[in-house]
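Usage

Read records sequentially. Each one opens with the input sequence:
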Amino acid sequence: MSERISRDGAKEDRTPRNLQTRESDARMVYRPASTLPNPDPRPGLKHRWVATEILGQTHASNVSKKMREGWEPVSASDYPELLLQGNANGNVEIGGLMLCSMPEELAESRNEYYNRQATAQMESVDNNFMRSSDARMPLFSEKKTSVTKGVGFGSGSK
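and closes with the structure output:
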């Protein structure tokens, strides 16, 4: 950055325009509102919205299954940042979805279980697929390339 004194004695900033920054360069970015508010992160907890009703019909079996997995409804009084009124039970519920929490260790253990299940299923599909492979026409072939110098092609001979 350099300064220059003008004819009237005032200092002029001689910084090139491409190096100058303006406050107005920081533009506002529009983001549509989320359908469901996100609770403030709590140490040691994972959150999830659990369906309590679908198309106006209660879905008690889904709620029961999630409770057996370890999800627990959160109290509206514990999450004032959501600015919601709780349902009759005092839980946070919006449009048939109830906010639940689970300890992080249990959530990680649950995710590992389902990842192992998915991996085992993929291995089973691959093994079943490869069982029908024939040596004369393998389903998966190794990709090997080789360069050979031939006669006739590109050399102008017939």
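Summary fields computed downstream for this record:
- The radius of gyration is 32 Å.
- The beta strands are 3-5, 11-13, 45-51, 53-54, 57-58, 72-73, 93-94, 97-103.
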